[in-house]
Design brief:
heterodimer; A: 275 residues; mainly alpha; 80% helix; B: 312 residues; alpha/beta; six-stranded mixed β-sheet; five-stranded antiparallel β-sheet; 15 strands; elongated
Chain lengths: 275, 312
């Protein structure tokens, strides 16, 4: 436990002194807060429209899931990969951290980033409710909101662990960022190709590509079945096929498996390679 | 008791035989506690790789070593708190101040804030401690690296090229700090290209070439190895020519002072008789103690090229 405190302290110091860290946190907060601010403004001018928790969770979480995972992935790369170019990873090991503990420090950073971004999202939800003139329904959070929130956290974990793996492998923030973003485009293209092939097995496989899982976990329709029913009824009226989502538990399990394999690859890379 | 001991320590980069590089080849040496030990070699001879293995950033592919008698991974982790080291250039977070960088190192080493200020004071960086590392001159960076190595008041200090890129004033400052540490009874393992500095600072040296130790021992022993003589005669050209043909001379070179010859034995009578036989009459004959730099160049062939070799 003592070593965890040490890692937390030194990684916190490294992060808070970094301008990129605050820029990313501020940008995430701004992206998530701006739509909420707009809706609060509408609620103030139009007494019939209410914008408050728990009803506003899907809206707030929807914005957060749009940018949160990518921000965590990018930030993870910015906080990890330069340790190799600056050779500070090597110096940390020389100073007495084992390679495994150095890696554990970065895992602490990942956990901290997820908590920070989740906390920011919750604060925006609470803040917008406090500023909104009308009150919401009973309670603060519903089980569907919790499920959506967990989906956001798992999405951040997948992108963050992918960032860790790329950083440990490539040891350069530029290359790691390029590969992460390129892969997003490639996966998108592969998915379209597979879905275009209209072969059920391929389409199903495409659903299980890592960032597709994150996308599905970040879709409110996967977490709010009553909304999905309405949407599908509307689609049926327009002659469109119904939208189908895998069970959230299955999506999350597959995403967590990816995350575990990314983190495992990062650890192996740290252990095997010289600094 | 030994602070460092290596046994056939080896590092080979790459696994394919045709392309693998043997950076360190079965080196064995020992550094006693309290010694100031110079580790010398041309660029690419394996110095930094050896130090990397000692400090745990590079995995050896053969042999073993121990620090203060500890050899297993867990034991080595424990004794590393007694070691302070920097490798090649000073490695710090460029966006952080000198003091914050030391806070990181102190956090890892489990050292409190007062010690950070003491170390900053010792290396003369207290006034600039709040400025960002990237604004430091090379000399200041080197001094900050020294401060970081001293944070935990280690018994063994490993410094890789601490005077690299420094001006004479900076070199003098580093030498003074090393002197202070040596006076405090620290064991210092110092790799450097600045041979005059090493000769002044170190009590013992090892010279490494192509990944192998070619000589080691007390500085006085290493520079005193062999029997070199300084000879002068009226006709220096004739003297040098005659000595080059002398079967008992292992090397002969001309200097401003005269002709220096390394002899295979101490039989100076044979030299004078031989030269007289060649018509060369000496005006001066005296034992010659070469500098460490001369020994180094003699041993390494003056090479400053990459000494790693491709394994066959």
């Amino acid at each position: 436990m003592k070593i965890l405190g040490v890692l937390l302290r030194i990684e916190w110091l490294k992060a808070v002194k970094r301008r990129a860290f605050w820029v990313a946190v501020a940008a995430f907060a701004a992206f998530t807060a701006l739509p909420a601010v707009e809706r609060v403004r509408n609620a103030r001018s139009d007494p019939s429209s209410v914008y408050a928790l728990p009803e506003s969770w899907p809206d707030i979480l929807g914005t957060a899931t749009g940018v949160g995972p990518l921000f965590v992935g990018v930030l993870m790369i910015l906080l990890f990969a330069p340790e190799f170019t600056w050779r500070t990873a090597r110096q940390n090991v020389i100073d007495g951290l084992s390679k495994e503990r150095f890696y554990a420090g970065k895992a602490v950073v990942l956990a901290g980033l997820i908590l920070l971004f989740m906390g920011t999202t919750v604060l925006i939800g609470v803040g917008s409710t406090m500023l909104s003139p009308g009150g919401g329904g009973p309670g603060f959070i519903r089980s569907s909101d919790l499920s959506y929130m967990s989906g956001l956290a798992v999405g951040m974990l997948v992108f963050g662990s992918a960032g860790m793996m790329l950083s440990a492998h490539l040891r350069s923030s530029g290359s790691a960022l390029a590969i992460l973003l390129l892969y997003l485009f490639v996966e998108e293209a592969v998915t379209r190709l597979m879905l275009g092939a209209e072969i059920n097995a391929l389409s199903a496989a495409a659903e299980f590509l890592p960032f597709n899982l994150v996308e599905d976990l970040g879709d409110d329709l996967a977490h709010y079945p009553d909304v999905l029913v309405d949407v599908n009824a509307d689609r049926a009226e327009r002659g469109l096929a119904p939208l189908v989502f895998l069970k959230v538990g299955m999506l999350a399990a597959a995403a967590l498996a990816y995350s575990a394999s990314f983190l495992g690859r990062a650890l192996l890379s740290m252990r095997r390679r010289d600094l | 008791m030994q602070a460092i001991q290596t046994f056939d320590l080896t590092k080979r980069y790459g696994t394919r035989a045709a392309k693998s590089v043997l950076a360190v080849d079965r080196i064995s040496f020992a550094v006693e506690r309290g010694q100031v030990f110079g580790f010398l070699g041309p660029n690419g001879s394996g110095k930094t790789t050896t130090i990397g293995m000692l400090v745990g950033t590079i995995k050896p592919t053969g042999g073993s070593f121990n620090l203060f008698g500890a050899s297993g991974p867990k034991d080595l982790m424990t004794v590393r708190t007694r070691v302070g080291a920097t490798l090649e250039t000073p490695n710090f977070y460029p966006y952080m101040s000198g003091r914050d960088n030391l806070r990181i190192a102190a956090g890892v080493k489990g050292v409190g804030r007062p010690r950070i200020e003491e170390c900053l004071e010792l290396v003369g960086l207290s006034d600039r401690a709040k400025h960002r590392f990237k604004t430091y001159s090379l000399g200041m960076k080197q001094r900050l690296a020294l401060a970081a190595t001293m944070l935990s008041d280690p018994e063994l200090i490993i410094l890789d090229e601490p005077a690299n890129g420094l001006d004479p004033q900076g070199i003098r400052e580093i030498r003074e700090i090393i002197g202070i540490l040596a006076e405090r009874g620290k064991t210092i393992f110092l790799s450097s290209h600045l041979l005059a500095e090493v000769e002044r600072t170190c009590s013992h040296v090892a010279i490494i070439r192509k990944g192998r130790i070619v000589t080691s021992g007390a500085v006085a022993e290493v520079v005193g190895e062999g029997s070199a003589v300084l000879l002068r005669a009226e006709d220096t050209d004739a003297l040098a020519g005659a000595m080059e043909a002398y079967p008992g001379a292992s090397s002969v070179r001309r200097t401003d002072e005269g002709v220096i010859a390394a002899l295979e034995s101490n039989d100076l009578g044979s030299v004078t008789r031989y030269l007289a036989g060649q018509g060369v009459y000496l005006s001066h004959l005296a034992p010659y103690r070469p500098s460490l730099e001369e020994v180094f160049i003699d041993i390494t062939g003056g090479a400053v090229d990459s000494m790693t070799e491709i394994a066959s």
